[in-house]
Amino acid sequence: MPAIPRGPLSRLRWAAADGWTVTLRGMTHWVREPGTLVGALTFPILMVLMFGYFFGGAMQVPGGGDYKEFLVPGMFVMTMVFGMGETVTAVAADKNRGITSRFRTLPMSPSAVVVGRAVTDMISSVLALAVLMGVGLLMGWQAHGSLGDTALAVGLLLLLRFALVWAGVYLGLLMSGPEGITMVQTLEFPIGFLTSAFVAPSTMPGWLGTIAEWNPLSSTVLATRELFGNPGFGGDSWIAQHSLLMAVVWPVVLTAVFFPLSVRRFRNLTT
Length: 271
Known about the structure:
Belongs to the ABC-2 integral membrane protein family. It is found in: Cell membrane; Membrane. Its main location: membrane. It is a multi-pass membrane protein. Keywords: Antibiotic resistance, Cell membrane, Membrane, Transmembrane, Transmembrane helix, Transport. The protein is mostly helical. The protein has one domain. The chain is built from eleven helices and no strands.
């Protein structure tokens, strides 16, 4: 059995190498089971086409503007949310099949399993976001902001996904059966729809609109609309006026909560 590195730099290189090995394992599964990746890429495309073309003609954008340009940034955020269900499913499957416990008996970095899962899911999210942006361009959506603003908007979307990855890892380690996974996947819809992604909160009943505005996802929706230069951003409430700030604060808070919970849960799993 190889010796466990002692020095901090050696342990960091060890953790990075083992984490990358687990990442490659995840990407190898894409090749052997491409249906998982294809499904992850296809579902948000169907959603944006359905809302853009089936319902778009009946939708009114606050302040005027093209509903497709209003919708597409919201769908970028929804894609990040839907990815959480994939994380939960993959982590729970490895745990329930004993693969995670097997990893814990090997002379590998304790962080490699959760870090490798996070990197794999971030790569998948980058691919999904790139594909959806291409579909958006074909639909007529455009990023009217500067190149720097566009890059910042993409960064905020991936920051949100990074936070949701750790929420997904924790929930996946927590789940003991398919019922729990189904519940998480089902909750993605009300949590995602109760935002400003599809309609303005001002069109909702007052109490519901307030909940939608304070939904952490709405801050990223509003901030990315503003950065992309798309219609429908803004609002009178404090949370809407500070959407760019909160699009950073919310993911940082979520990561600060779920990252240590994920590590602790992984360490406390029974072998």
